[in-house]
Protein: M48 family metallopeptidase
Amino acid sequence: MNMLTEIILNDKVTNENIRVQVIRSGRKSLGLEVRPDGTVLARIPARLSDRELKVFIEKQQDWILKKVDQVKKRADARTKIKVPSVDALSDAEIQKIKDKIADRVKYYCAVMQVTVGRITIRNQKTRWGSCSSAGNVNFNYQLYYLPDELLDYVIVHELAHRRHMNHSKEFWSEVARYCPDYRARRKQLKEYQLAN
Structure:
């Protein structure tokens, strides 16, 4: 018997269709989640019938539409960075970006007394930076176009992972040692949206 894997809701105000992805599992309760990217998930017990699922979604429709609207407004409020695409950059410009970010990484490695493996500059779709357990660090080339204090915050954040590969209390204490106003910078960084 085929069970529903998604339900389409229509927002009568915007006349947009909203897909609700259905995830069935051994759970006993019904749950709804609207992710930051606007994806709507309905987590339900495997045995729930399609009819019961539809009744549940209909009852929650107003809540779903309200949440999706809030997520969209939050995304619209974020500042899209004015950055050229990687393809539009000359070799000299790419080198300039790599040099600036690598120089800041080396500076903070010395200050924080940590070492890294490879420093890679990429066009990541969802991240500003990352640090592997092997000690290699990746940074998004778009950081070059942000205010310097945000570039420095991302670098300090990733280098702090060289001591703590998690987001524990100790990790944030390490970040605070070299970036005392990290909370303000992290909040400011969230106002920027990666340009894809």
